[in-house]
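During the second half of the funding period, the structural biology subgroup turned its attention to how the target accommodates small molecules. The most pressing case was 2-oxoglutaric acid, which had performed well in the primary screen but for which no bound structure existed. We therefore specified the complex as follows and requested a full 3D prediction, including the ligand pose.
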Amino acid sequence: MEAVKEAGTQAVHSGKPAFESRPISWRLGSEVMGLDLKRSEDISDDTIASLWRLLGERGILLFRCQGLNHDQHLAFTRRFGPLAETGMTSRYAPPGYPDLFTVTNIKSNGARSETENAAQQWHSDQSFLPVPARASMLRCELAPQNGGDTMFSSTYAVYESLSDGLKKTLASLQAFHTLLNTRCLVMTNRKTMDDKEVAKVEGATHPVVLVHPDTGRKCLYVSDQMVDHFEGWTVAESKPLIDYLCRLIEHPANTYRHRWEAGDAIMWDNRCTQHYAPLDYDFAGMDRPENHRLMFRSTLA
Ligand SMILES: O=C(O)CCC(=O)C(=O)O
Ligand SMILES: [Fe+2]
């Protein structure tokens, strides 16, 4: 097994170096250098295991300038395990690729994209499912000339910043996650969902504090987009505490903000991070090609 340890911009390896990595912010995120993800079949199982370990520790892995196509994107993601069921999201898949999810502001036949602002609230992917997504990988094909960034937050850092008293309260709490909650802004698209799709996003209950299975560290699993209430609490009772926790998630000190270049790819762990895409570009002028944003996501079960 290659041992890959971050030490500033240097990686320390025993044996043949497979990749180098360096932190991209203090609390989360590492850039991985020296791998060609287009040829994931040439990446050893040991290297995949090292990447997975680094992902669990750092929350997100940035691979710059990879220029993947759909097949290469999926082939690399599959090296980490089976893909998540796409369910209601399969209609956002590019033709012929049911396992990819398109996030774009580009109109189709004159109609606005339903995913143009899908990530305008902090969330962890598919937390409304009984078995949510373990990790996701997003790649950028077109970035607006200004903005169009994605932000990531460390839910390890958020949990660790809490007082012992609040940690104790949260330890016994379960939260109900659903896309059909009153906080959730993307459900403005709900009118286009059929009953089967609505059933998929109806919701699931998860512990508020997760123990990350790989690192043993605790993370906060409550999000602005999905959490409706704590089990046994009313929505009104839950809201102030959800709001308080969400403030910590969006606090700049806990985040990394990525300025996309076409060709970049980022893999994130949905347990120990959340993400959010601010509408920080010329949203009103999104018909102009220089404001087009086109991203594709794969999702690990
Ligand atoms: O548009 C983005 O930057 C993030 C989209 C998103 O939340 C996702 O693909 O899971
Ligand atoms: Fe997402």
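Two results from this model are relevant to the next phase. The domain at 5-300 is CATH 3.60.130.10 (Double-stranded beta-helix). The chain has one domain: 5-300.
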